[in-house]
Amino acid sequence: VAVMFRAVPQAFRNLHGSSIPCSARKFSKRADKNCIVGDKVAVVTGSTKGIGFAIARRLAQDGAHVVISSRKQQNVDQAVATLQGEGLSVTGTVCHVGKAEDRDRLVAKALEHSGGVDFLVCVAGVNPLVGSTLGASEQIWDKVLDVNVKSPALLLGQLLPHMEKRRGSSVVLVSSVVAYMPIPKLGVYNTSKTALLGLCKSLAVELAPKGIRVNCLVPGLIKTDFSQVEKTMPHLLPDMNEIYGLFGEPEECAGIVSFLCSPDASYITGENIMVAGFSSKL
Ligand SMILES: NC(=O)c1ccc[n+]([C@@H]2O[C@H](COP(=O)([O-])OP(=O)(O)OC[C@H]3O[C@@H](n4cnc5c(N)ncnc54)[C@H](OP(=O)(O)O)[C@@H]3O)[C@@H](O)[C@H]2O)c1
């Protein structure tokens, strides 16, 4: 085990040699931020709205070509048009992350740009149930685990051959503060988000020898359609808002993802990083 962990930093130290065109240190001033993740291709799932859209926009602003995706064609079209209208380099395709044929389509679309992929950000997640954990049907369990937990691993498996040949590849999973602090009546969802913390750790160790870093963003309460009181987190939000401060904005989750993809994060892998106004982790 000790040998394995010694290999982790070594693998990453070798990644960012002189062939990296845009050093984040060199371009760390805001005026120069276009090259933070420049010349790279990023795939972002669940990226037509909310947190995923903010991350896609930020990665594109920081110089990456970004492949947008979500379940609905009209959402993809709208998101792509909006970001292209801002002069950003984006393309998009429909991808329900739980469907194998959709993941194939996303991989093919991503490879169109330059034949490889540098970053995968898995944002898509669902919560179809507000109710007791033990009352959840097998279909509910399957849906939540398929979309939230299995799909990032399956998609990464498909992208791996196209990522490992690039230098400095990086994966960011998206968990939730409920992974640490479960919300009653969201037990299946809570569980899926805790599983992602472990998936992050396992993948980080497994992919270190290939020079691929894996980290996990852990958002708190973020103002999006998903977190609307009536939809997902009934009656508990006012209390949580009082304890943990105001809701965050999707944009407040985006800079950290760009950083985690950048060479400045070359010695960071396997981390679960909270963006929640406060961290309940020791
Ligand atoms: N908002 C929060 O407070 C909060 C806190 C912690 C963690 N999170 C996590 O952050 C992620 C994004 O949440 P959000 O608040 O940004 O949600 P949102 O604003 O509702 O956006 C969800 C996005 O994901 C897409 N999507 C939904 N199901 C999908 C699927 N099966 N395959 C592919 N795309 C799918 C949606 O587009 P289509 O409808 O076109 O598919 C949309 O683009 C989720 O994983 C969620 O668990 C959110």
Describe this entry's structure for a reader.
The protein is α/β, with parallel strands linked by helices. It contains 8 helices and 7 strands; from the N terminus they run H-E-H-E-H-E-H-E-H-E-H-E-H-H-E. Strands 3-2-1-4-5-6-7 form a 7-stranded parallel beta sheet, with helices on both faces. Helix 2 crosses helix 8. The longest helix is centred in the middle third of the chain and has 27 residues, at 138-164. Residues 1-9 and 11-32 have low confidence and may be disordered. The structure holds NADP nicotinamide-adenine-dinucleotide phosphate (NAP). The site of NADP nicotinamide-adenine-dinucleotide phosphate has 30 residues, from helix 2.
Small-molecule components bound: NADP nicotinamide-adenine-dinucleotide phosphate
Distance between the termini: 25 Å
- Binned, the helix content reads 40-55%
Give me the count of strands.
7
| CATH architect. name | 3-Layer(aba) Sandwich
| Number of H- or I-type helical stretches | 8
Give a quick precis of the structure.
This protein has helices at 2-13, 50-61, 73-85, 100-114, 138-164, 187-207, 237-244, 254-261; strands spanning 41-45, 65-70, 90-94, 119-122, 170-174, 213-219, 272-275. It has 282 residues and is an alpha/beta fold.
List the helices and strands and how they pair.
Blueprint: H1 2-13, E1 41-45, H2 50-61, E2 65-70, H3 73-85, E3 90-94, H4 100-114, E4 119-122, H5 138-164, E5 170-174, H6 187-207, E6 213-219, H7 237-244, H8 254-261, E7 272-275
Parallel strand pairs: 1-2, 1-4, 2-3, 4-5, 5-6, 6-7
Helix pairs in contact: 2-8, 4-5, 5-6
The structure holds NADP nicotinamide-adenine-dinucleotide phosphate.
Residues 45-52, 70-72, 75, 95-98, 123-126, 147, 174, 176, 219, 221-222, 224-227 line the site of NADP nicotinamide-adenine-dinucleotide phosphate (NAP).
Keywords: Oxidoreductase
Enzyme class: oxidoreductase
Protein name: Dehydrogenase/reductase SDR family member 4
